[in-house]
Write a structure and sequence with these properties.
Layout: E1 3-5, E2 17-21, E3 24-28, E4 34-35, E5 37-43, E6 50-56, E7 76-84, E8 87-94, E9 99-105, E10 116-117, E11 127-130, E12 136-141, E13 151-155, E14 168-171, E15 180-187, E16 190-197, E17 205-211, E18 219-220, E19 237-246, E20 252-259, E21 273-281, E22 287-289, E23 298-300, E24 315-316, E25 329-330, E26 338-339, E27 347-349, E28 363-368, E29 374-381, E30 390-398, E31 401-410, E32 413-422, E33 425-433, E34 438-445, E35 449-455, E36 462-468, H1 474-477, E37 484-490, E38 500-509, H2 517-523
Antiparallel strand pairs: 1-23, 2-3, 3-5, 4-25, 5-6, 7-8, 8-9, 9-10, 11-12, 12-13, 13-14, 15-16, 16-17, 17-18, 19-20, 20-21, 21-22, 24-38, 26-27, 27-38, 28-37, 29-34, 29-38, 30-31, 30-37, 31-32, 32-33, 34-35, 35-36
Length: 524
């Protein structure tokens, strides 16, 4: 029997939600502080996913500098995608402005509508359920204003976003902390309410209840949780925030988030990833996820007709006038801070006064780290003319946790530097004189270390220093995202006068060679 391997979408792709239209599947994930927001994927087999683009591509849809003081892991939380009567709907919460909303489109590629805000609705993780009788139910978590923890629901006019009933607490969960990520389904005459509990860390689990009415009372599955790897040595941990989908052949599946900690060190850097597991139904009519409730790195594909894997595109030469879907900005970009047309075939970044340390939007274009073992390199042309002008590549978790190798002007001389920011500490690890007009900057990643290199074109790379992956892990750095590899530029306190030109970025996945616990501890 054919098998597939998890994660099906590696790297920072949390809170997956999925819907089927005919024989096509569409999936969205959270994007938090990154813009464009809500990556959207398409698949024919639930295993091989191609990114179509993003749902939220305009600042009017996704303002990321909102009513809250800027900080990391704000922005978009936990979208849900559904399809009804020729329209796709995506509903979510923008934490930066503390509002939930939905958008719609007739094609998953867009264009997507302007947000329809849900006045009178609070909390996060909103989900939509279109019932057979035409009623539409909005389900989500407790609000920000002191409601008891649990899952709340109301009916909604899908044309206007107006609530047609009061919010009602319909289930408090099984007693686990943070009941969230709810989805309501109608299957074989029952309304099933599926919920994540335990917090989106190592105690995460997926639970379910059912009722003959969409408002309950809901009967809890006596065998809950239906999917969890808590308190196990399984290589995938933190499993939960699942969404059910019935395949065209009638089989059932769930997508869910999970993390891959480094050996037994209980730290992860790639973020929460999208995984897939089969779902079976027991004689009592309850679903069971994965292998008897456990998520595996490899599952039987069952009746899925697996297609060809999506080809990995390792190199972007920036030959288009649009960025490829893999690329993101950190928050809403300053319009003049980047260009693909100022110099054809190059990505041009114009450094802003803000830096990677600031809670603003630096000149930054990055993509997710999706493999523990990989190599990144870029050719940079940059001749700084003013003190503090800087450009390079960064390994970026958030404003307080990042490493970068860069060219800068220091003491009136061009220097090549390696800097590491870890919490409140910032250290210039190395600096060397560098007067060539171009440089190839590189990063080699494994489970334990990032190794940074530089080379003049045609010359062998020189190692300038290393940085531990542990300090960029979620367990140290906090937040809900994962590591990005990014090209950046800054004027370090004032707008730079010299643009930075990047000819390409090459990302080569390397063979996974998992280290044992003792090797990791020795190298850490």
């Amino acid at each position: 029997m054919a098998t597939f391997k998890n994660p099906v979408i590696p790297g920072f792709h949390p809170d997956p939600s999925v819907c089927r239209v005919g024989e096509d599947y569409y999936l969205v994930t959270s994007s938090f502080d990154y813009f464009p927001g809500i990556p959207i994927f398409h698949s024919k087999d639930l295993v091989n996913w191609r990114q179509l683009g993003h749902v939220l591509t305009r600042e009017s849809q996704l303002p990321l500098m909102g009513m809250l003081p800027p900080g990391y892991s704000q922005g978009i939380y936990a979208p849900t995608i559904r399809y009804q009567d020729g329209r796709f709907y995506v509903i979510t919460t923008n934490i930066s402005i503390q509002k939930s909303f939905y958008v719609w489109a007739e094609s998953p590629e867009g264009p997507w509508s302007e947000p329809i805000y849900l006045e009178g609705w609070g909390g996060v993780d909103p989900s939509l359920f279109f019932d057979e009788d035409g009623n539409v139910y909005l389900t989500g978590t407790a609000n920000f204003y002191g409601e008891s923890a649990g899952i709340y629901q109301a009916e909604i006019d899908i044309a206007s976003g107006t609530l047609l009933s009061e919010r009602r607490l319909i289930w408090e969960g099984t007693g686990g902390s943070h009941p969230e990520g709810p989805h309501l389904y109608r299957i074989n005459g029952w309304y099933y309410l599926m919920v994540a509990e335990g917090g989106t860390e190592y105690g995460h689990m997926e639970t379910i209840a059912r009722s003959r009415s969409p408002y309950g009372p809901f009967e809890s599955n006596p065998a809950n949780p239906i999917l969890s790897n808590r308190s196990t040595p399984k290589p995938i941990q933190g499993t939960g925030h699942a969404d059910l989908v019935q395949a065209a052949d009638g089989s059932w599946w769930c997508v869910f988030l999970g993390i891959r900690p480094v050996a037994n060190a209980k730290r992860h850097i790639l973020g929460r990833e999208t995984n897939l597991a089969p779902v079976t139904w027991n004689e009592e009519g309850w679903p069971v996820g994965g292998n008897h409730g456990r998520a595996e790195l490899e599952h039987d594909a069952g009746s899925l007709q697996l297609g060809e894997p999506i080809e990995w595109v390792s190199r972007d030469d920036f030959d288009s006038d649009k960025l490829q879907p893999a690329w993101n900005f950190y928050r809403n970009p300053v319009p003049d801070s980047w260009s693909l047309t100022d110099r054809a075939g190059w990505l041009t970044l114009r450094g802003q006064a803000c830096t990677l340390n600031d809670k603003q939007s630096p000149a930054f274009v990055g993509r997710r780290q999706q493999h523990l073992n990989c190599e990144i390199k870029t050719l940079l042309e940059f001749g700084p003319s003013e003190e503090g002008e800087e450009a390079g590549i960064t390994v970026f978790m958030n404003e307080k946790f990042h490493y970068e190798v860069a060219i800068t002007m220091k003491d009136s001389k061009p220097k090549l530097i390696l800097r590491r920011r870890v919490g409140t500490m910032s250290l210039l690890e190395a600096e060397v004189d560098y007067t060539e007009p171009t440089v190839i900057l590189g990063v080699h990643a494994n489970e334990v270390l990032y190794t940074f290199t530089y080379a003049a074109p045609g010359k062998e790379p020189v190692v300038i220093g290393k940085g531990e992956t542990a300090f960029l892990s979620k367990e140290v750095a906090g937040g809900f995202t994962g590591v990005f590899f990014g090209m950046y530029a800054t004027g370090n306190g004032r707008n730079a006068t010299t643009p930075a030109h990047f000819d390409y970025l090459d990302y080569q996945p390397l063979e996974d060679k998992p280290m044992d616990f003792f090797t990791i501890m020795a190298l850490s």
